[in-house]
């Protein structure tokens, strides 16, 4: 079978660290081109814009879009109009109306749109979901604290309108919660701490509630140094469960069920295997629930101005 000929749009940290290695490791794909204003990929054709790339390489089958989310809608619309399948890095876009339009455009074009949530592919998430079918959740707490200088170096867009701030990381936890919890989840309240020189929050304290009354709380912080923490503590009627390492490690009581030493590498390998399956079967996969929760959190939140933030390494 001929490999899927794919191009990358946006050659930033996530593309270099995860997408490109995952594509090169999968024999079902062939990386033919890349488009970026500031970087290039070795051994493929490189272009400054998606327009130039699509015009010069009409034989590509798919485009993986790894730009900041503010550019996702226009790029997706253009790729679909040119008959390409599309894989979208998270967050998918900046508004729910854009999300709905992208899904309709993919259907009209007869092409696959795979809107990814990489944390759902962490190796602890699927076994946690299976176990929760046999248990009743009593309470959930998310601790998602990381050093933004380490994970988003030089990425000014994250502090601008449409850049999400700490919710760019927090949406990963929300993507896991919406995978695990089989009931609607609503935003109840939030405190968003916004540096005076930024337009997006650097930290957040969030209260969510399930349709059954399930209490869900979350603490997010981009100022955290030392050990990086991406934990979801699940209190159930039969005892505690814990997803840590961003969903890669599952502990039930004192027993570790799903150790994932590969981390993000295993998530993106799984993403590209799923993308190939969706293309082969002519399907689109797009779930707006995490994005909708972010939008609702912003609606109910108190915005608290704090001291300016210096993004340069200390």
Account of the 3D structure:
It is a single chain. By secondary structure, the chain is α/β, with parallel strands linked by helices. It folds into 2 domains: 4-115, Rossmann fold; 123-263 and 295-306, Dihydrodipicolinate Reductase, domain 2, CATH 3.30.360. Helix content is 32%, strand content 29%. It contains 9 helices and 15 strands. It has helices spanning 13-25, 50-56, 72-81, 96-109, 125-132, 148-151, 167-180, 264-281, 289-300; strands spanning 4-9, 29-35, 45-47, 62-65, 85-88, 113-115, 137-145, 185-195, 203-210, 215-221, 229-236, 239-244, 249-252, 255-258, 301-306. A 9-stranded mixed sheet has the order 14-13-12-11-7-10-9-8-15. Strand 1 (4-9), helix 1 and strand 2 form a beta-alpha-beta unit. The chain is globular, with a radius of gyration of 19 Å.
The whole-angstrom Rg is 19 Å
Shape: globular
Beta-strand residue percentage: 25-35%
Q: Alpha-carbon distance between the termini?
A: 51 Å
Encode the helix/strand succession as letters.
Answer: EHEEHEHEHEHEHHEEEEEEEHHE
CATH architecture of the largest domain: 2-Layer Sandwich
Count of structural domains = 2
**Widest sheet: strand ordering:** 14-13-12-11-7-10-9-8-15
């Amino acid at each position: 079978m001929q490999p899927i000929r794919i191009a990358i749009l946006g050659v930033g940290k996530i593309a270099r660290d995860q997408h490109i290695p995952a594509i090169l490791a999968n024999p079902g794909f062939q990386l033919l081109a890349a488009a970026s204003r500031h970087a290039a990929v070795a051994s493929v054709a490189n272009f400054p814009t998606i327009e130039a790339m699509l015009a010069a390489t009409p034989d590509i089958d798919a485009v993986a879009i790894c730009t900041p989310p503010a550019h996702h809608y226009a790029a997706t619309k253009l790729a679909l109009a040119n008959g390409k399948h599309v894989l979208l890095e998270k967050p998918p876009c900046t508004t729910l109306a854009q999300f709905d339009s992208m899904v309709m455009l993919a259907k009209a074009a007869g092409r696959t749109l795979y809107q990814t949530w990489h944390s759902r592919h962490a190796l602890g998430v699927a076994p946690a979901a299976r176990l929760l079918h046999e248990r009743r959740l009593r309470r959930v707490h998310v601790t998602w604290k990381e050093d933004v200088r380490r994970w988003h170096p030089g990425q000014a867009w994250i502090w601008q309108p449409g850049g999400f701030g700490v919710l760019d990381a927090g949406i990963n936890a929300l993507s896991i919660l919406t995978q695990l919890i089989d009931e609607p989840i609503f935003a109840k309240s939030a405190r968003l701490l916004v540096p005076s020189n930024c337009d997006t929050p650097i930290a957040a304290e969030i209260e969510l509630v399930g349709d059954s009354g399930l209490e869900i709380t979350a603490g997010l912080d981009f100022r955290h140094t030392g050990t990086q923490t991406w934990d979801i503590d699940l209190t159930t009627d039969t005892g505690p469960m814990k997803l840590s390492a961003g969903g890669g490690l599952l502990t039930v009581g004192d027993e570790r069920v799903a150790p994932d030493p590969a981390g993000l590498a295993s998530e993106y390998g799984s993403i590209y295997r799923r993308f190939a399956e969706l293309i082969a079967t002519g399907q689109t996969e797009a779930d707006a629930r995490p994005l909708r929760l972010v939008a609702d959190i912003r609606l109910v939140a108190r915005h608290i101005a704090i001291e300016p933030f210096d993004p340069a390494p200390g």
